[in-house]
Amino acid sequence: MQITVTAVKELREITGAGVMDCRGALLEAAGDMNEATRILRQRGIAISEKKASRAATQGLIEAYVHHGGHIGAMVEVNCETDFVARTEEFKELAHNLAMQVTATSPQFLSEEDIPEGTTSNPQEDCLLLQPFIKEPDKTVHDIILETTAKVGENIKVSRFIRFELGL
Fold it and tell me: For the segment 73-110, what is each residue's pLDDT rounded down to a tens digit?
């Protein structure tokens, strides 16, 4: 099967994967763009899970204040190196996570952080389980895994805080 350069370029723009990875996925999917995207996402998740045990001690703190200045959030996002912390993908992830915290007001980072005996809805109260505000068919955790696959390093959200005027 012949894979065009245009198809490889389009798949790269969608997934952020390398040229050879995109070409291989398109060959495996017999040219089907949706199937190739799914294949690359699965591979990215597998790579992300392998990197999860690595120490993430670098990163940045991102703040977002909603227009009007009445509500905002800060989030600490960590990665393995300061080089990755300076990339646009990482900065965009941190900014989007700060907006997510501002918009959805999560109480906990993950389900493990919910105190025993507390009645709460984990999908609403846990940041990592919430539907991502820009792509509701994915969770925040999925978005972090995708960015991990793109930048090639472990990424963790360490902590976050949300502020609302008068509360």
Answer: 999 999 999 999 999 999 999 999 999 999 999 999 99
pTM summary value: 0.72
> Running DSSP on this structure, what letter comes out for residue 109?
S
Reply yes or no on domain 5-51 having CATH 1.10.8.10: yes
Superfamily of domain 58-164: Elongation factor Ts, dimerisation domain (3.30.479.20)
- CA nearest to 109, candidates 64, 82, 138, 144: 144
pLDDT at 79: 93
Q: Where are the domains of the chain?
A: 5-51, 58-164
Cross-sheet strand order for the sheet of 58-65 = 58-65, 71-79, 156-164
Cα–Cα nearest to 44, from 164, 127, 108, 138: 138
Q: Count how many residues are written for the chain.
A: 167
Round to whole Å and give the CA distance between 17 and 151. 10
